[in-house]
Specification:
Elements: H1 3-15, H2 23-27, H3 32-38, E1 46-47, H4 60-78, H5 88-99, E2 110-113, H6 115-127, E3 133-138, H7 142-149, E4 154-161, E5 164-165, H8 167-177, E6 181-184, H9 198-211, E7 215-218, H10 234-238, E8 242-247, E9 259-262, H11 265-279, H12 284-295, H13 299-324, E10 339-343, H14 350-359, E11 362-363, E12 365-366, E13 379-383, H15 389-406
Parallel strand pairs: 1-11, 3-4, 3-6, 6-7, 7-8
Antiparallel strand pairs: 2-9, 4-5, 8-9, 10-13, 12-13
Helix pairs in contact: 4-12, 6-7, 6-11, 8-9, 13-15
Amino acid sequence: MDTNLQTVEIERKAEVFNWPFSRIATSLEASIIREILKISSRPGLINFAGGLPAPELFPIEQIRECVDAVLTNSGPASLQYSLTSGILPLREYLAEHVSKKGLPVTAENITITTGSQQGLDLVGRAFLEPGDYVLTELPTYMGALQAFNFYQVIYCPVTMDKDGILVDQAEEKIKQFKPKFIYLVPNFQNPSGITMSLERRQKVIDLAFKYHVPIVDDNPYGELRFSGKAVPSLRGIGGDAVIGLGTFSKLISPGLRIGWVVAPIACSKVIERVKQATDLHSATFPQYIIYEFLKRGYLEPHIEKIKVAYAHRLDIMESAMRKHFPENVTWPHPEGGLFLWLQLPEHVSTMKMLNESIEAGVAFVPGRPFHPDGSGDNTMRLNFANATPEGIVEGIKRLSVVLKKYC
């Protein structure tokens, strides 16, 4: 190779490091869950960290049937560009599904998204400007904080008890900070596992109407109830005061990346425009696959199957924790979802504990990143759905050894 050309090539590569990335982009922190997932393939590591469903329970044969049917019956359309709001048959199905749980909606109320994470970003794009306030639970879903952080917002978090967000405290913060919206995960909350009671839901809806502030109801786990009594959704109670987010990631497959937003039509039109600027539309082919899966009646039997499996794994994990963990480690019992939320003595830092735990062969998520106020260093989240029953028992044993050093 010519020496001069080689020098120019090296200089060109070096220029990349001087590119003027935006201040917002360079200020974003990587998700600790994504970072942990990078090492999850380490041989022998038992991963309680990510929000991963059980891969051995994916409905591979049914999906294969659906793929073949889509290519046979809708091949060209499934491989073509589609509407920003999503393919009509899928939106019509979701509108019927949502209508059964509350006020009637039509396909015009539905926008198909690339997972519910994109739904969070689209809501952020539609509502938020730098310096705006967002009211959240404390703790709250880390992915929502990441989505909203891009818009340079300020959080006014509200603590919870066993029935969910404390409404009196929420009202005081609404009056003081005038948030753009209230972000809630009312069913088997991520990370705490708490389900908001019906009375608390009604009071939160009252606040939304009283102060004209919308509620964003993030509901990825609502179908995964193992025990207790089902509670009406926030949108079912509050109607157009609520923007609902849903996803098939926890119900069918996260790899297909199909979620949805249900909102008042005027709001859906704004969300459609901001989505056009984001990706034109979510991938067409997975939308057709999901619709074929639904049309064939595969969803409900599959949900029942994974509920039985996840309930069993929850029982195994809690039994192992009661047997092996120090007595000063506590947690609320969830009625569904994927997560257990551990409270450790106040002097313990789970951030400092993480590397030692990984070296011991088990991964968890420290609780502090779920707290927009920087608290929660003595908390951690465990996923009971992803590991096998045998892996759960072994992982809890390994984690208990580390916990006993700190607690």
